[in-house]
Amino acid sequence: MTAPAAAAENLIELIARLAAAGRAAQRVLAGLDSQVKAAALRAAGAVLRSANGDILAANARDMTAGAAAGLSAAMLDRLRLDPARVEAMADALEQIAALPDPVGQVIDSAIAPSGLLLSRVRVPIGVIGIIYESRPNVTADAAALCLASGNAVLLRGGSEAVNSNRAIHAALSAGLVSAGVPAEVVQLVPTQDRAAVGAMLAAAGQIDLIVPRGGKSLVARIQADARVPVLAHLDGMCHTYIHSAADPEKAAAIALNAKMRRTGVCGSMETLLLDAQFPASYAVLAGLLEAGCELRGDARARALDPRILPASASDWDTEYLDAVLSVAVVDGLDAALAHIDRHSSAHTDVIVSEDAAACERFLAEVDSAIVMANASSQFADGGEFGLGAEIGIATGRLHARGPVALEGLTTYKWLVRGTGQIRP
Amino acid sequence: MTAPAAAAENLIELIARLAAAGRAAQRVLAGLDSQVKAAALRAAGAVLRSANGDILAANARDMTAGAAAGLSAAMLDRLRLDPARVEAMADALEQIAALPDPVGQVIDSAIAPSGLLLSRVRVPIGVIGIIYESRPNVTADAAALCLASGNAVLLRGGSEAVNSNRAIHAALSAGLVSAGVPAEVVQLVPTQDRAAVGAMLAAAGQIDLIVPRGGKSLVARIQADARVPVLAHLDGMCHTYIHSAADPEKAAAIALNAKMRRTGVCGSMETLLLDAQFPASYAVLAGLLEAGCELRGDARARALDPRILPASASDWDTEYLDAVLSVAVVDGLDAALAHIDRHSSAHTDVIVSEDAAACERFLAEVDSAIVMANASSQFADGGEFGLGAEIGIATGRLHARGPVALEGLTTYKWLVRGTGQIRP
């Protein structure tokens, strides 16, 4: 065996050992009351607050190393912690502690003709792997969501945040243990060797679900390589279609908000479809241009405003995550649906119209995780959807779609209560 | 490119073309009323009945070829059709037509603080691949379940059943088209080249879900190779634990039924755990022995009856699917739970006890898709669970567990209805 192969083998063993320890701890967690889990999360939040100094000192070491390594300003901002960001992490733990516990919820029940009493009851998924990049707050947020849904978690953060993550993890552990939750419910993968990620992705049967948190290249690599199921979205290629019967003021406000409120979020609009019969397209475009958005349009869009640049074929499939927007003029709802069917990443697509029938047809026919009428696509968020938090937004077709929070981190089992029935 | 590589490339293109045609047809299907889908299934059943002669003639050709190829008697029995079996296929189509349509069901809805009206609505998964072996009835059953849940299906049956499957598929197609459903909703992969299965398993993004129907080696191969999500169970390593407080008569009846009613089904008992404090173990074992079941036991079980053979270590993980049973004596509920945790395939596990607290603890702590108290594990079946039918039983932890029927062949999308909301 060559040296790299031996090292990879050791990482496979390491991940197997961590996953087994997580599964054993998860079994203990599954037997704990909701109140104990909530108390553990609150205790973790309290330790996080009191360990503020240690965490900031660890983060300062990461920031120094990151600056020396030439990380971009944007990456350094994601990496940076300050007292307010630590406070926000602790707040998030308390908010998650206050959410209803999905574990044990009865989804449905029935009495079979045989007299058997059947019920489906929510149970944790098991062991969840979180693979993330430079934001240290994911360590606390993801751990809390997994714990609150009864799961064990293996956390693998970015190497640039290693000291921050260790300090946060130590605080979480101390809080959990003080409340009677096994420390192994939340484990940090103790090596920055990149092959550890490969070992996690290959750990089918040991890790039940992988959730990547980070940029497109991370998600693409994980989706390509994983043998473990992955819950994620690769792109947020979101469309807003301004129908002929749209209210002009609402249309302008929604388009501006959907693009410019925050350009870097996955729910931001990337393509604006203007109905050829909508009479106020010029005002919608002017609002975006005046807010500093670069517009790239097809020939008919460019005829509306000379400031619009020509779009290339790839623009219709480009998630800019920036103050850039592609604009096309379409002939009616059918053409809008066809464009969206061809180019959407199935994340969030929006119609703006006062015509209820047009809205309902759009809602029925667009096959995306989230389909909206008369609202900004930037509402695509677990918090806004009343989930209290989110582990991410999923664009796959199985298990959970759209914003995923506690319920999406559970599965179910069938309980069957009989009185001695045998099958004829 | 070598000749085999060129052929594999062509199969990848073939599967991509079939999947694309299926997806286009699925979009049409998604817009059809429940009544149209039900009428199409009834029409398919009627054509199946009237094509009885063609189907039996095609099946006779498969049977002749199978006998010449030396297929086992069991395989030939699975392959064989007769008028009653064709009638049963047509009946199944009518039963599936009568099931409630899951598509469009509102799972839940809420008003967000922003005033947005949120709802989760069931939608079809999309394009489903069914890979199966010699039973021709799967062609009709699986197609009907996929169609009734709004999905397109690619069917890849065993080569030994090729003529039967083509005749059944032709009848289904004629029925669907007569009712206005596109023929491409149900497509038979038109080649018996084994590499076509590989192309289906690799078709991530084109096929949304693979459901294997067949023996363990088929399922194992598919689980190992698939890049598309798979809904399946590999083993039905089912346990029945007779607790100290079990009713002796119920215990004997349940054990006998769980093993011997049909030994070849996935829900049949493979290991019997007898509590050391249960006073009537001898009678339970005698009933099984007298019914012709071979028993393989640990030392304490063998002390109960000299007819029990010694079990080897592998017996505790062996799904016999035959009149063979492994038997262990355990010291109480904790020991039973530990044995099941170590050896269960997470399909169906059962406790027999009149002690309600013991039953509830078993139901809570056993982490299997189906957990039963005081009933035969042979009830593990979609029909018995009131689902009307089943595409299979899943032991994975995501999307759907246990018996899977129409609901498990759907996913959901979020519909968001606003009045012009923008996000602050």
Describe the structure.
- Chain A has helices spanning 3-30, 34-50, 52-68, 73-79, 83-97, 137-148, 162-178, 195-201, 216-225, 248-260, 281-290, 299-302, 332-343, 356-365, and strands at residues 106-111, 117-124, 127-132, 152-156, 186-188, 209-213, 238-242, 269-275, 294-297, 309-310, 324-330, 348-352, 370-375, 392-394, 402-404, 410-421.
- With 424 residues, the first copy, chain A, is an alpha/beta fold.
- Chain A folds into 2 domains: 3-220 and 404-415, Aldehyde Dehydrogenase, Chain A, domain 1; 238-384, Aldehyde Dehydrogenase, Chain A, domain 2 (3-Layer(aba) Sandwich).
- In chain A, α10 (248-260) links the parallel β7 (238-242) and β8.
- The longest helix of chain A has 28 residues, at 3-30.
- Chain A is globular.
- Chains A and B meet through α10, α14, β13 and β16 of A and α10, α14, β13 and β16 of B.
- β16 of chain A pairs parallel with β13 (370-375) of chain B, so a sheet runs across the interface.
Mean pLDDT of chain A: 95
Our count of helices of chain A gives 14
Biggest protein-protein contact in the assembly: A-B, 62 and 63 residues
Structurally, the number of domains of chain A stands at: 2
SSE topology string of chain A: HHHHHEEEHEHEHEHEHEHEHEEHEHEEEE
Secondary structure layout plus pairing:
The structure is a homodimer of 424-residue chains.
Chain A: H1 3-30, H2 34-50, H3 52-68, H4 73-79, H5 83-97, E1 106-111, E2 117-124, E3 127-132, H6 137-148, E4 152-156, H7 162-178, E5 186-188, H8 195-201, E6 209-213, H9 216-225, E7 238-242, H10 248-260, E8 269-275, H11 281-290, E9 294-297, H12 299-302, E10 309-310, E11 324-330, H13 332-343, E12 348-352, H14 356-365, E13 370-375, E14 392-394, E15 402-404, E16 410-421
Parallel strand pairs in A: 3-4, 3-6, 4-5, 7-8, 7-12, 8-11, 9-10, 9-11, 12-13
Antiparallel strand pairs in A: 1-2, 2-16, 14-15
Helix pairs in contact in A: 1-8, 2-5, 2-7, 3-7, 5-6, 10-11
